[in-house]
Specification:
transmembrane, about 280 residues, Energy-coupling factor transport system permease protein, mainly alpha, about 0% strand, transmembrane helix, globular
Length: about 280
């Protein structure tokens, strides 16, 4: 099992051959499209598209299971908070209140509230898989070049590239240190209690963070000595010009965004109302 949470992995397929800039623009435009509308039909379509792209990228479940489970926990917590603070919001949106569970007073659950919460959950399945796909199929240097292509300063782009390269290294170091500590008798697996595991992991993480800050300072000094940032522009070794597939990807992203905006006009609002 991989120790990395999320990071670039070499693979084969059309997603790996696309330019980082086209994938980044596609992710941004489709995310905006998914966030703009609550039309269940459109969001379901985007979810199916995201799952299809996952299948095409041949990303293994074990490589992303931890992140997906973490996001799922956050999503469920968010849905619970939305329901607790506004259990009648769905009824206000759809103009109707058909109770699933009555007798709970203020917290009575309606089909409309369930439908609204279902739409919220679907939004996670639209945007999160696309973000993971982008990170796992785009080389950090190409990601930096793509940011610079769309107008982001190359200084910021390079900082992002270094971060994406450095985070997996820190993760590897953390797991290496943890395994060596376990070999010395310090129990950090699920056999130990929760408090013991938290304390033991913090004892590893804090010194690792401090040593990482020292290395960041070393890298910054080395870049300054090489006059990094002197010129207004720079070239990129991993720069990839747009090809036919990239233009088709951009056309698809723009079409999906326009479809999302058109559905807002058709539905006379952001919400699709099956009870209308």
């Amino acid at each position: 099992m991989s120790n990395r949470l999320i990071g670039y992995q070499q693979g084969q397929g059309f997603l790996y051959r696309l330019s980082g800039a086209s994938k980044l623009i596609f992710f941004i435009l489709v995310s905006v499209a998914c966030m703009a509308t609550y039309d269940t039909r459109f969001i379901l379509l985007m979810g199916v598209l995201a799952m299809y792209l996952f299948y095409q990228a041949k990303i293994r479940w074990k490589d992303i299971s931890f992140v997906i489970n973490l996001i799922l926990i956050v999503a469920i917590f968010n849905l619970m908070m939305v329901y607790l603070f506004s259990p009648s919001y769905g009824a206000e949106i759809y103009g109707r209140k058909d109770l699933v569970i009555s007798g709970w007073g203020y917290f009575s659950l309606s089909y409309q509230e369930l439908f609204y919460l279902f739409n919220l959950l679907l939004k996670y399945f639209c945007t999160v898989p696309l973000a993971i796909l982008f990170l796992m199929t785009t080389h950090p240097s190409q990601f930096a070049a793509s940011l610079n292509q769309i107008g982001v300063s190359y200084r910021i782009s390079y900082a992002v590239s270094l971060t994406l390269r450095y985070i997996p290294d820190i993760q590897e170091e953390f797991y290496t240190i943890r395994r060596s500590q376990e070999a010395r008798g310090l129990e950090l697996s699920k056999k130990a209690g929760l408090i013991s595991r938290i304390r033991g992991n913090l004892q590893i993480a804090l010194p690792l963070i401090l040593s990482s800050l020292e290395r960041i300072d070393t890298v910054s000094t080395a870049m300054e000595l090489r006059r990094f940032g002197k010129n207004k522009k720079r070239t990129w070794y991993n720069y990839q010009a747009f090809k036919k597939a990239d233009w088709l990807t951009l056309l698809l992203a723009i079409s999906l965004l326009l479809l999302s905006l058109a559905l807002i006009w058709v539905n006379q609002g952001r919400f699709y109302n099956p009870w209308a």
